[in-house]
Amino acid sequence: MEETPLEAIPTFTPARRQTNKRSAYLILAIIIIVLLFLGYKAVSSQKSSAPKPTPTPIVAAPTATPTPTASPSVTPGVTLAPTVNPVDKDSGLDRSQLSVTVQNGSGTAGVGAKAAAVLKGLGYNVVVTGNADNFNYTNVTIQVKSGKSDFLALLKKDLGFNYTIGNATSDLPDSFSSDALVIIGQ
Length: 186
Hints:
Helix content is 31%, strand content 17%. It has three helices and five strands; from the N terminus they run αβαββαββ. It has helices spanning 14-49, 111-121, 150-160; strands at residues 99-104, 125-131, 140-145, 165-172, 180-184. The longest helix has 36 residues, at 14-49. The protein starts with 13 loop residues before the first helix and ends with a strand.
């Protein structure tokens, strides 16, 4: 019988035991992470499968249909439909032929949208609403292009029912995207 040299016999050294211990901890950590992930998925799927209440839309009907010669009323949250005939009786101007940009120059939320609703209710073609270059405007500023200067008096009249008109000019640059600019101030 031949003897095996000692170097050939495998022995477990403390370093080898440490490597096996590290591997066991790594496997245990991976199992814990997988279980946590699966638990999270199970809980989140239960939450998403719960029936969600369906919000009931609130629809408000306008109390009166505005007419081009009467004072338009604005109810918050109500979009006014344009009148059947947007043509002004006195001047013969068709409001739908004027494209209008309405800007909020007061800084109070919703001011521009309310004015846009008034103008739309009268039949104007409101193409853009947004904020003005600053919030320091007082009263209402109206600018129209020189080619649409006939509409300046009509805009002043229509907006004058609800607003105090400040500046009103027909010097809007031809490069401006719409025919008229209305800035609602404080």
